[in-house]
Amino acid sequence: MRGEGFPGDGQAPLPDAVFLVTAGPEQVRDELARIPGPAVRLAHAVYRASAHLHGQAGPQSRRQLLALDAARFGDLGLSARIAAAPVGDGADMADTAWSVAWATGSTVDHRFRHALVGHSERVCSVATGLVEGRPVAVTCSSDDRTVRVWDLATGQPVGELPVGDSEVRAVATGVLRGRTVAVGGSRDGSVQVWDLATGHRLGDPLTGHTEVVATVATAVLDARLHAISGSRDGTVRIWDLTTCRLVGEALTGDNGPVQRLATAVMEGRPVVVVWSWDGTVRVWDLATRQPLGSFLADCAAGVPALATAQLDGRPVAVTGSQDGSVRVWDLATGQPVGEPLAGSTEAVYALATGSVQGRPVVVGGCMDGTVRVWDLAAGQPVGEPLAGHVDGVWAVATAVVDGRTVAVTGGNEDGEARVWDLSRARPVTGGPRGHTGEVRAVAAGQVDGRPVAVTSSRDGTVRVWDLAAGRPRAEPVISPPQPVDALATAVVDGRPAVLTGSWEAVVRVWDLATGRPLGEPLVGHTGQVQSLAVATLGGTAVALAGCRDATVLVWDLATRRPISAPLTGHYGSVGSVATAELEGRTVAVTGSLDTTVRLSDLACGTPVGSPLTGRIGLVNAMARTVATAQVEGRAVAVVGGWDATVQVWDLASREPVGKLHTLHTDWVQAVATGVVNGRPVAVSGSRDRTVRMWDLTDGWPLGSPLAFPGPVRALTLCQDGRLVVGFGWEVAVLTPQ
């Protein structure tokens, strides 16, 4: 292994880029863990950030992801060295066509340890335990109908538990006769028990509930392990796992379905804390099955979160709610302890408790995809929120791995569980902070002669980025009243402007230099604006907006008035709008969830020919996104579909050009066209976390796919060939070489 100096380190040489890219993952991790110093700590964080993606990938993909993650952590020098690392005998030169100019780092964190990748749908519950001395996590997804077991030290799968036809909604762990078992509550009302060492189910499912078992826990009662299950049928049942029998009558109340439950010890007695649908929290003595008290925690609608802990020697319950509040309650008195835990404004879906450096902590999973940690005694946040999930966090558990406290969190849309080291005290700074929600749209423009990128996010902000400097022009520039789904740039009244379309049925025009509105909004739609484009018609700048009401409105940007009646013909939401010059006239090319792509004459607002049709009469199953280009004198449309395909169409003949591209493995969420290194290209971004490029002249793919740590929802090609990509919460700018 060679070393290369790192400015300002002074402790140890950083492993060279070739070693990072080509060595085996375990060898790299061991070497980085051995070498001290801040530079190596940063390199280790970079390597961990996407190790679950590049660990099994080839060297080209690993190099590209490592270069991107180094930029996300703000080290453009390391990114450049990694991108320049040779990985073969020169045959891979076509794969080194892009370098990372810069990237945001909203979701990189030095506390991220690794991802547990295997579920294809939402992870709805997580539990942890020890199997033969090794810490494991048990995760379940009712949507993909699997329960999986993971080695927490390595992040590797251990196995999958048999569930039969059940959809397991909740899991817990315990120790039965010296062996760690998992308990699962199912949609069919049953409770299952598995031996985690063998992966086998213990006995038949336990039955008695009449509706979904939404929550389970374990407790030791009379020196025997018991499972406690709560159901939407409004009952809590106690099961002796030694005999696999129900203990006594079900615990019932008049408070509706059981949402969450947790166990605790109060005055030496095992108790169960039950949160019901109406917000009532009841405490039951597990031995006598008698209620010990109740209190009203929260009446807010939605699924609450519940955990228990010991605070200053007394048992407490911690509750999280739809309104983002997290409160601590004394179980003996039912009274709140101190003020609500500060910091969260989003719904809290899951809670767990643990101990970090001897202090009790609460870990909360939130709707916005963040994981928050609070010091339970002080009532204050510990560090910044952990970010990395692309959607809500529905499950949380804690464990101890190699003497360090970790949190295991389960995500919604990404289907990932993530492991975070809560004991890492020395932070590693990341790159420029950007959005705090999914990037929905990207556009390119110019301000004061400098190229800019404009991005919008589910966090409700629109940001304008200096493409060369890699920093926002302000924080943020534009503040629309609702999250923006569509963007387009134009020159309006002689000023550089951006048009925004959102959940409201209007299009707003903003001055890119000042962030202020330019004139009145463009009105006329009756539903959510989902797509935007601009064009020139007879020397006049016009704006086109596709809407959920299945229409496309066209406005004169100078007068703010419609130039024609709405374009019609679709009967589904118009999710994509583009324009093209076809046989001497300007046409709108629109893609809809009705599975068609239609052409309309912008001058008179009438249809041009019949819709584009493909296999079984559909255009790529669903026309998710459309872009247009001129290729060798002919107008073409590039259509990306929900069926993971990309097709190029000749707009004059209405015929496909070349073969159907099927290299993506999930929805194509964005397409763009442009010129890169002198040739016309199409670029497609997918939910499969890749970007692919196609030569529009011959239809061949160009190089290997570009991999990203999150789903790619938005992208654009700038006039100078730079590629701007929105993936997950992040924005990256890549430069062609």
TrEMBL record:
<feature type="repeat" description="WD">
    <location>
        <begin position="522"/>
        <end position="565"/>
    </location>
</feature>
<dbReference type="InterPro" id="IPR001680">
    <property type="entry name" value="WD40_rpt"/>
</dbReference>
<keyword id="KW-0853">WD repeat</keyword>
<dbReference type="InterPro" id="IPR019775">
    <property type="entry name" value="WD40_repeat_CS"/>
</dbReference>
<feature type="repeat" description="WD">
    <location>
        <begin position="206"/>
        <end position="249"/>
    </location>
</feature>
<protein>
    <submittedName>
        <fullName>WD40 repeat domain-containing protein</fullName>
    </submittedName>
</protein>
<dbReference type="InterPro" id="IPR015943">
    <property type="entry name" value="WD40/YVTN_repeat-like_dom_sf"/>
</dbReference>
<dbReference type="InterPro" id="IPR036322">
    <property type="entry name" value="WD40_repeat_dom_sf"/>
</dbReference>
<feature type="repeat" description="WD">
    <location>
        <begin position="183"/>
        <end position="204"/>
    </location>
</feature>
<feature type="repeat" description="WD">
    <location>
        <begin position="116"/>
        <end position="160"/>
    </location>
</feature>
<dbReference type="Pfam" id="PF00400">
    <property type="entry name" value="WD40"/>
</dbReference>
<feature type="repeat" description="WD">
    <location>
        <begin position="341"/>
        <end position="384"/>
    </location>
</feature>
<feature type="repeat" description="WD">
    <location>
        <begin position="318"/>
        <end position="339"/>
    </location>
</feature>
<feature type="repeat" description="WD">
    <location>
        <begin position="432"/>
        <end position="475"/>
    </location>
</feature>
<feature type="repeat" description="WD">
    <location>
        <begin position="683"/>
        <end position="704"/>
    </location>
</feature>
<dbReference type="InterPro" id="IPR020472">
    <property type="entry name" value="WD40_PAC1"/>
</dbReference>
<keyword id="KW-0677">Repeat</keyword>
